[in-house]
Amino acid sequence: KQEEDLVPVTNELNKKIQALVDKTYNNYLEENPGFPGGIAIRVIHGNQTALGHKGFATNFSESARFRGQSTTKTFTAAAIVLLYQRGMLRFDDTVTNIIPGTQITYLPTTEEYDIPYKNQITIWQLLNHTAGVYDIVNSSDGEAFLDSIFSTNPNFTMTIDLMTSYISRQQNSQFVPGTSWAYSNSGYQL
Q: pLDDT tens digits for 46-64?
């Protein structure tokens, strides 16, 4: 359904959802004083929708947008497992392998995607943070690079192409694939 097709649920359900959000948020604050965030739940049932929120600005609404950041990794992993179950990829394939049933490699063969150890990095290593892909988000020079972009345009959307071309130009990696573990946003984006 399109968002404009959704109609609010009864006030009673909105009250129940808000009470649940309030209780959850307050319990969390008791255990984590000074928590600098909020919680929001949007429920869609049929053509009805309800929203409960706490800890955000008073102008919070259903049209609010958030950067998903690490919460999206769960969905990415689930999608990769589904593709595996459907035979559309193999966990032990390197990112230079041909995607099953196609003539396309997992990662492009262009200069922008010439990351270190590319021919050794497997799908499985990307999923479990053992690929050694340089993490542009959590490195000092990568952070400076991102800050320079966002300082001039705070609404800029970082593309995978731009991120990967930066890693390829710098030729940085965290380690040889499969030899260690390090959290890597860049690896998950690949």
A: 777 788 888 886 677 777 7
